[in-house]
Amino acid sequence: MSNSKTLLLFIFCIFSSCYIPSPAIASDHDPSSKGFIHCLTKKSIPPWLIHTRSSSSYTSILKSSIRNPKFLNTTASTTPLCIVMAKKTSHIQAAVVCSRRHRVRVRARSGGHDYEGLSYRAEDRRERFAVVDLSEMRSVRVDAARGTAWVQSGATLGELYHAIWSSAPRLGFAAGVCPTVGVGGHFSGGGFGMLQRKYGLAVDHVVNATLVDAMGGLLGRDAMGEDLFWAIRGGGGGSFGIVVSWHIKLVPVPPTVTVFDVVRTPERGAIDVLTKWQEIAPRLPDDIMVRVIAEPRRVTFEAMYLGTCDELLPLMHHRFPDLAMTRADCNEMTWIESIPYIHLGSNATVADILNRISISRVNTKNRSDYVRHPIPKSIWKKIFAKLQQLTNFGEVQLFIDPYGAKISRIHESATPFPHREGVLYNIQYITYWSGDANGTLALKCSKDLYKFMEPYVSKNPREAYANYRDLDLGRNKVVNGISSYHHGKVWGEKYFRGNFERLATVKAKVDPDDYFRNEQSIPPLFE
Q1: What do you get for the CA distance between the two ends of the chain, in Å?
Q2: CATH architecture designation of domain 31-133
Q3: Quick one: DSSP state of residue 173?
Q4: Cys-Cys crosslink for 188: which of 15, 237, 239, 309, Cβ 3.0 to 4.6 Å?
Q5: The listed CATH number (3.40.50.720, 3.90.550.10, 3.20.20.80, 3.30.465.10) that belongs to domain 140-252
Q6: Which SUPFAM superfamilies match (predicted)?
């Protein structure tokens, strides 16, 4: 794997409210804020776990999980009144109880990868909220005999994978490629990765959960009921409560997997191969995932096969001869070794996936699309021309993940994640830039590319992935103290299609006064 690709993959990975009228942002000297902090300590949260704006530790704690540098300028948006570094469930419950009592809302942060930063910032200057940081609640308990695990929301995917491998080397889990992503946010939006065609999404394997609800109560699956349990498995974070932990069913992995990267440039037929890929990749056997990383001057076909190179080669020669894959492209390893290899490069070790730190040096903007019909070769040529235009102001990548197989065989109403049958692939557009001047031009080109793609992607609605949050799709509007369902539909149906209405109905039942709220949280729909 090249150094440039490794760097861009690292940058790609680093990125997974509330409104109560007030004439100004509350300060630590506001009497209501003092009462809120006093309530937290009275509820047995140690003072050293509470970081207010006047604390010397506040800024460093706030910025510790800000993955996108454009959000480091904390004067551009509203920051939390305080950050509670929860160490046990009762701390989360106390934060919710005290927040409600003192007219302060709560946002939960697990990994800090939310693309719009909504787990730690608010766009409305009148916002009064606290952050419950879950990064200290990251235990993983694996039951190898039953093939299950309990994982807390503050754990990263790397910590989850490492714990599974340490206890049961022949088991794995179907989730994302980025080890630093927090479990809480990732699972809340669905969670897909290199095992998606074999096993589906992360939430397809969640069998139980514990959640702190809008009144501060602690609920398991039986207590929360099947509607709420359905909603938290892909309905997006920050809407229904704070999920403390997830009970997941692990999946078998073979002793050997094969990873390969085949690079093609436009001069070496990249566009021809990509055009054919979009019809071949979704129809390959379940055991293989061939995704695409498209850049202005090259296309990388990156794959993982659940088996050996000897088994893979005849399959690829028969089903995808135009890729011209050879034995020299094969890299055999264990499943756990594939995690750092794919994300960090060939020199990375399994220990590296335990590193929680991943702060980018460049700004990013992310968008997403779903494609249900192949894009013609002539259009791909125009797409690459637009990608090359963007290099005048920054860098751009398209991460293109094929669907089909298991992820597409599950009915779209089984979980809130609806992008199933009929989807060929998902596109994530990532634009990178440095400096404010370049940002204006880079964002304009990014919008132009997104607009250009409109005729060639899904329609009615134009679908998007909830974990690739994009506020350009729309924002909530609060009417009479409640997020408007009418306004929420604008962005909500893009993420959830027909499941959005059911999500809003669940919201009305479990959080009717819209306590858990942000710019793109599920609004309540009252019958």
Answers
A1: 54
A2: 2-Layer Sandwich (3.30)
A3: -
A4: 237
A5: 3.30.465.10
A6: FAD-binding/transporter-associated domain-like
Residue type, 518: N
Q: What is the pLDDT of residues 300-318, one digit of tens each?
A: 999 999 999 999 999 999 9
Q: Amino acid letter at 480?
A: N
Its sign, for the CA torsion 480, 486, 487, 491, is positive
Q: Give me the DSSP letters along 216-253.
A: S-EE-HHHHHHHHHHHHTTS-SSSS-EEEEEEEE-EE-
Other Cβ atoms less than 10 A from the Cβ of 62: the count is 23
The pLDDT value recorded for residue 32 is 58
| pLDDT beyond 50 at 14 | no
- The long-range contacts involving 273-277, CB below 8 angstroms and separated by at least 24 positions, are 273/299, 273/301, 273/322, 273/323, 274/299, 274/380, 275/374, 275/375, 275/376, 275/377, 275/380, 276/320, 276/322, 277/301, 277/320, 277/323, 277/402
Q: How many CB atoms neighbour CB 357 within 10 A? A: 9
CA angle 136, 153, 427 (to 5 degrees): 125
Q: Which runs of consecutive H residues, i.e. helices, occur in 138-199?
A: 157-167, 183-189, 196-199
The mean of the pLDDT values for the chain is 92
What is residue 395's predicted lDDT score, i.e. its pLDDT? Answer: 87
Q: Which of 194, 188, 186 is nearest to 157 (CA)?
A: 186
Residue appearing with tokens 């009717």: 512
Q: What is residue 22's predicted lDDT score, i.e. its pLDDT?
A: 31
Identity of the amino acid at 284:
L
**Which of the 8 DSSP states describes residue 109?**
E
Q: Are 412 and 419 in contact (CB under 8 A)?
A: yes
Looking at residues 269-298, what average pLDDT do you find?
A: 97
CA angle 104, 108, 110 (to 5 degrees): 160
Tokens of 19: 């409104």
How confident is the model at residue 24, as a pLDDT? 33
| Contacts of residue 148, Cβ cutoff 8 Å, sequence gap at least 6 | 142, 207, 247, 248, 249, 250
Q: What is the CA radius of gyration of the chain?
A: 22
Topology classification of domain 256-332+360-466:
Vanillyl-alcohol Oxidase; Chain A, domain 3 (3.40.462)
Length, in residues, of the chain: 527
Structural domain spans, the chain: 31-133, 140-252, 256-332+360-466, 474-526
- Pairing mode, strands 298-305 and 363-371: unpaired
Q: Which residues make beta-bridge pairs with 140?
A: 151
The closest of 18, 235, 40, 13 to 121, measured between CA atoms, is 18
Residue 173 · residue 100 · CB < 8 Å: no
Question: Is omega for the bond preceding 46 within 30 degrees of 0, making it cis?
Answer: no
Helix locations, 281-327, DSSP H = 309-319
Q: Over range 435-463, report the average pLDDT.
A: 90
User: Helix 436-452 crosses helix 377-390 at what angle (to 10 degrees)?
Assistant: 170
Measured between alpha carbons, how far is 360 from 345 in angstroms, rounded to an integer?
17
463-487: pLDDT as tens digits:
999 999 999 999 999 999 999 999 9
